[in-house]
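Before any further analysis, backbone shapes were mapped to integers, which produced the following:

***
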Amino acid sequence: MTKRFLITIGLVAAFAPAFAVGDPDGAPLELTLPVTTDPSTIQCRQIRAQGATSLSFLPLHRTFNDDFDQHPLASGRWVPHYAGGAAWPEARYWGGDGSDFKRKTSANGEQQIYVDPRYAGRGTAPLGLDPFRVENGVLSITARRTPPDLKAVLFNNEYTSGILTTQGTFAQKYGYFEIRAKIPIGTGVWPAFWLLADDGGWPPEIDAVEGRGQRPGDLVMTTHWRIPATGKIEHCGFDFTVPGAEADFHNYGVLWEPDRLIYFIDRKPVSDISVPVGFDDPVYMIVNLAMGSKFFTGVGFVDGESPVTVNFEIDRISAYQIDVTFAGASDVR
């Protein structure tokens, strides 16, 4: 969801029944995943039928879990904006001219601003806008059209919405990162669960799942990296069709091993790639609902057909660490 200039590589794959270990809906303390073991390449590939000789079972233990039984900002685990640099004053996150800089990614052509009850927009008094609601253990991030009387104070953005990140509260090198969610649809609707390097650099970026709002059931999983010699940004990923993803909860995740990244739908591996250069720092988690994109195909700009309100419903977000001893595998912050 950062500076994204891409058309995702790959073809639409038909979604097959899940291969899950244990309860596919829950976040147990211990988890075993089926993982690919045959040689992977820098050209990412879709994974279809895998023979017994090309799969093994990897044990993991849980290091992070939020079932959203309370407001996400009550726990101190989540931050409702992107983080700034070392010299970024704390007050700049909460209001005044320029405070929108860390509350949207303008380069993507996004048409929302991320708000929270403390945020004051151009002003100095909190507006009390809350895009987060918890009901029956489900978090809804709600994007809604900006009220006309708040347009000016909210930098003329068409929508208010929400973002949650764990930068500064949780980051991990290697392991499995998973969201259980419904993927909303509609013109301009762009939900995502993704990972960025804790050192603040970009790329690397791991998009565990993104939705193309104009294409129901079309989900994207992508890896982004930079070629050091040229500075060129590379991307590799695939679209996957999950019928009814907007109405039903599914698990979407990515496993980062020292030698490869493996993407999962309902804990069944669906694609992998050899870990590109630059994946050195622990990563933190981001979940957000953007509105509008000029680069991400299948989202489109907000128009008269876009929903007045739309919800990104999230049952839980979890992270696991690999039990097998790897150098740096226990690097959890």
Remarks:
- Residues 12-21+33-322 form a domain with the Jelly Rolls fold (CATH 2.60.120.200).
- Confidence is low (pLDDT under 50) at residues 1-22.
